[in-house]
Amino acid sequence: MELVYKTTVYAAVILVTMHYIDRQMEFANRLGHLFKLQFQGETEQVKMMAAINKIVLENIIPSHVVAYYLRSSRKHEDLYHESCSHVTVMFASIPNFKDFYQQTKANGEGMECIRVLNEIISDFDLLLIKKFPDVEKIKTIGSTYMAATGLHNGTLRTTEEGESWENNVVTMIHFCLAMISTLECDFNKHSFNNFSLRIGVNCGPVIAGVIGARKPQYDIWGDTVNVASRMDSSGQQGKIQVPEETAAVLVKYGFPMEFRGITKVKGKQPMKTFFLKQRKDSLKS
Length: 285
Ligand SMILES: Nc1ncnc2c1ncn2[C@@H]1O[C@H](COP(=O)(O)OP(=O)(O)OP(=O)(O)O)[C@@H](O)[C@H]1O
Hints:
By secondary structure, the chain is α+β, with helices and mostly antiparallel strands. The chain has 7 helices and 10 strands.
């Protein structure tokens, strides 16, 4: 009798212990599952924040430069700078914006004019997003829009003759024509204005880099940039002015060019410059 009693007690103890261990294991499993879910959620959140940061950065600096800054092996003090051998630089000004800009009570001390300028610049930005991903906006300087192509070697196109930097010049001219069309055909029509662009384009080597610890800015420097700016400032309203070497590339790709003459360019020897002859049909964006 005593043996049966003892056996029953042992069996009961073993059963209770096993049940306890089973509950503990189930609890540990559930906890593990919850931790896994939380970890997955947090990983997703970190990935989403990284993607948002990347998008924000790519709106400030070119994506290949963003990739450089996000590289884990980059040392904190490493500065980004790059020599780019074949870059096409463009400055596009709206010379008659100065006449339009007025600070009066009626237009909110100039607010209305800034709203118009913002609309124009945003239209140009939209062209980049929709049709010209290879064109890099550098910045706006007042009402001047500055952009470049060929800043990243990946933008060299493979043609029948092989990779060619000349496509960067052609892409830029198509972008210029689209800007003119957007401003003169679309914007002016619906806003009853008569803005026009004066554009300067030049190609050659530049140094690209990011400067500043706060509000860092991606920019390009060099004689190619200076001459592009001068092609704009010494140009004519409604025209695209380029120096001789750039004109030669455009002629090669079938763009009709008109010799302007020997143009005085501040800080340089007088140089041969050319205007692009624009046909009406080339202005369809
Ligand atoms: N990264 C840049 N961003 C904007 N403008 C630029 C840039 N690099 C050069 N420029 C412009 O190109 C033009 C020609 O430059 P350059 O160095 O030859 O002349 P400068 O004597 O410094 O300028 P300025 O005579 O206009 O005062 C200048 O108006 C300059 O502002």
